[in-house]
Amino acid sequence: MPGLATLHHMMGHMMGWAPLVPTPVLYALAALAAAAAIAGLARRTRGALWRLAAAAALLLWLAGPELIRETGQPLPQTALLLVDQSPSMSIGQRAATARQAAELMQQAAARVPGLTVRTVTVRDGHGDGTRLLAALDQAAADIPPARLAGAVLVTDGQDHDVPATVPDHLRPADADGRRTTLPLHVLLTGRGEETDRRLRILQAPPYAIVGQNATLRVEIDDLGPHPAADGHAALTLSRGGEAPLHETVRTGIPQDITLPVTRPGPLLVGLAASALPGEVSTANNQDVVRINGVRDRLRVLLVSGTPNQGERVWRRLLKADPSVDLVHFTILRPPDKDDGTPLSDLALIAFPVRELFQQKIGQFDLIILDGFENRAILPRAYLENIANYVRDGGGLLLIGGPEFLGPGSLQDTPVGEILPAHVPVDGGLLEQRFRPALTDSGRRHPVTASLPGAGAQGHDAEWGPWYRTLKADSAHGQVLMDGPDHTPLLVLDRVERGRVALLLSDQIWLWSHGEGGGGPQSELLRRISHWLMKEPELEEEQLTATIADGRMRIVHRTAAPAGPRAVTVTAPDGTTQSVPLHISGTGLSEATLPAALPGIWTADDGTHRAFAAPAMADPQEFADLRATATLLAPLATQTGGAVRWLGDDPAHPDVPGLRLAASGTLSGPGWIGFPHRDARIVTGRSAQPLLPGWVALLVAGAALLLAWWREGRT
Fold first, then answer.
1. pLDDT classification of 488: cutoffs 50, 70, 90
2. Angle (deg, nearest 10), helices 693-712 and 48-63
C-alpha cells in the first residue's frame, strides 16, 4: 500500500494515502478478508460476495485515501544569450554588432512576462578556438532544468566545438523522465554567407642545411560561394634582407615550394597569398615560417705538437659535438730529431701534409694548432696556404706555450702576419701563479660575457690558477682575458674575411682537472671555436628582435664601449618609426614597443638588421574568417531553433522579437520563441479525506445486512 510520499496527478489535484493503521496490519487484514472470501466461494456460501464488499469498504477506509490540493506560483523561465567576442569577431563590425544585438535582446526579454535572459560573453578559447557550446553547458549547469527555456547564440558562426547531437542541457528530463528538446537559435553577424581565402602551411622544416633548399608544403583555399575564377593565386615569399620570391599556385591543392637557405641562424620567411576579390579579410592570407639554418657537418682540423694534457681536453670537447667531424694529428717527433725510435712505433699513418694543407685545406671550417712547433714540418708554401685560408674566410685557433718562442715559432712564418699578438724571445715566458680574468671588452663580448665564476669586475674571478703564460709585447684586435700584470691572455681578431684566436697559455687544461676550483674550460673553448666558425649568436655586434604578447623587444649587443642608440622599426604595413634604445646591462641596450600587426617586423640600426614576427596565439580562430551558417545551422535545425542574419550595421542590427510559444513552431517572420515549461513553486497544500468514516461504516453495514438476508433465504 503506498504511503503519503506516493502522489498521482489527477485533474489538477493529487491523490494520496494516509493509513489509519500501520501498513503491515492493513496488508494482513486484507489477506484475511481475501482468504475468507475465497473459502466462502469455494463452499458456495450465500452472501460471501457481500461479506467481501463489507470488508473492502472497511479496508479502504483504513487506508485513508485523501484528495490533496496544492496552490503554487509560476516561475519565470531563463534563456541563455551567448555573445561571441572571440578573436574572429574582430573582423569588421562583428563585435560591435553582437554587443548591440545582445542589448536589444535584453530589452525585448524585459517585455515578455515570465521570461528572463542571462547573458554570457564568450572570449578567447585559450588556443582551442571558439567554444560556444562548452560555455553553454557551463552556464546551463547553474539553471534548474525545469526553468531553462533554450539558448541564443550571437556569433559569426565560427564555432569549434559543435557536437554531432543535441547537448544534454538542451534535452532536460521532466518529472516523468521524458526528455524535451529546447531550441537553440543562432543570430549571425553579417548579411549572408561570406567568401574568404586562406593560406595554410601544411609542412615546414624547423631546420635546414645552409647552402641547400628547404621545402615548404602549402595550400591556398578559397572558402565560400565565390572562389577564384581561374583557380590560381599568387604566392609571395619574403625573406629578411633578401629579394622576395614569387610563385603561382593552384587553389585547393597542396603544393611544395623550395626555398634556398643561404646563411646560418634563424630565418623568417613571410608567405602572402594574393587577395581574393570580395573576401571578408586578408588576415589569414599570410603566415610566417621560422627556419633555423644550420651548417652541415663542421670539419675541424686539430694538429697537436708534443703530446700534452690539453690534447685530451680538445678531443673530449670536439668529439662530444655530433655536428663536428674531427681530424686530429699529433706530431710525436719533428723531422730533425732522431732518437732511434722506429717510425712504425711513432705513427700509424704518415702525416698527410700535402693533402691537408694544400689539396683539402678549404674544406675545413676551423684549424686548431695546439702547441704546434713547426721545426720544418710544414714548408713555407703550406704556411702561406694557412694564412690565405684565414683571409678567405676560415677560422684559426692557436694555443701557445714555450714552443712559441723557439726557432720553429709560427711568429716567424707567414702565419705570423695574421696573428693578433707578438711575443718576444727574451722575457716572453712568464712562469708564476695567476688567475685569468676578463677585461672590460671581455665582459661585453659574447664569447666571454657571463662565463660562470667570472666575478663582477676586475680580477675577482673565482677560477682556478694557471702557472705559465706568454707575455706579448704588442697586440691588436680584442683582448678578452688577461693574466699577470694585465698581459693579454686571450686575443680575438678578424683578418679580412676570416678570424683568428690566440690563447697565450697552454694550461687551460688545469681547469678540467679542478685545479684551485677549476673553471669554465669546456664552455670557453666551445664559444671560441664557434665564434671562429661564425656562429651568429656569438657575434660581438648583434641586433636581435622578438615579439611576444603583442610587444616587440629589441636588444642591441656591442663589444665596444658605445652608448645607446636609436633603431628604425618598420611594421609589416610599411610604416616606420624611430625607437631609442636604453642601457640594460654591460654592452646591452634595448627597447620595447607594441607590435600586434601580423607579419614580419624589421629593426635597423644602420649597420645591422633584425627581423621578428608575432606567433599567432590561436590559429584556429583565423583559419576561416567567414561569417557562415554552415557550422551551426544543422544543430539549430535539430532543436527546432532558427538561424537569422543580423546585418553588418552595428547601430541597427536586424534583431528578431521574442515570444513564449505554447507549442508547435518556435520561430516565424521577425520573431523567435521559447516553449512554456510550466515551472512553478508550491506555496500551499491541503488534504481532504475521500471516504469519511461514517460513509464507510454505512456501506459496510449495508453489505453485511444484505449478506445476512441472502444467507437467511432457503
1. very high
2. 170
Residues in CB range of 39: below 8 A, 6 or more apart = none
Give the C-alpha separation, 438 to 210, whole Å.
Answer: 34
HSE (side-chain half, CA atoms, 13 Å) at 263: 12
Domains and CATH numbers, the chain: 8-73+683-712 (no CATH), 76-193+627-678 (3.40.50), 196-294 (2.60.40.10), 298-532 (3.40.50.880), 542-612 (2.60.40.10)
Q: Rounded to a whole number, what is the largest CA-CA distance in the chain? A: 161
**Residue 407: CB atoms within 10 Å:** 11
Strand pairing partners for 328?
Answer: 302
Q: Residue by residue, what is the 3-state secondary structure of 401-433? A: CHHHHCCCCHHHCHHHHHCCEECCCCCCEECCC
Residue 683 has pLDDT above 70, yes or no: no
Which residue, chain included where needed, has cell 531563463? 78
Which residue type, as a one-letter code, is found at position 524? L
Residue 459 amino acid letter: H
Q: Is the predicted pLDDT of residue 226 greater than 70, yes or no?
A: yes
pLDDT in tens, 93-119: 999 999 999 999 999 999 998 899 999
Q: What sign results for the dihedral spanned by CA atoms 53, 55, 56, 62?
A: positive
Name which of 652, 646, 669 is nearest 153 in CA terms.
646
Give the up-direction half-sphere exposure of residue 424: CA atoms within 13 A in the CB hemisphere. 4
Residues 24-82 have pLDDT tens digits of 877 887 788 778 777 777 777 777 777 777 777 777 777 778 877 766 666 788 999 99
CA distances from 547 to 289, 366, 444, 552 (A): 14, 35, 24, 4
Residues contacting residue 113 through CB under 8 Å, at least 6 positions apart: none
| Secondary structure of 537-552 as H, E, C letters | HHCCCEEEEEEECCEE
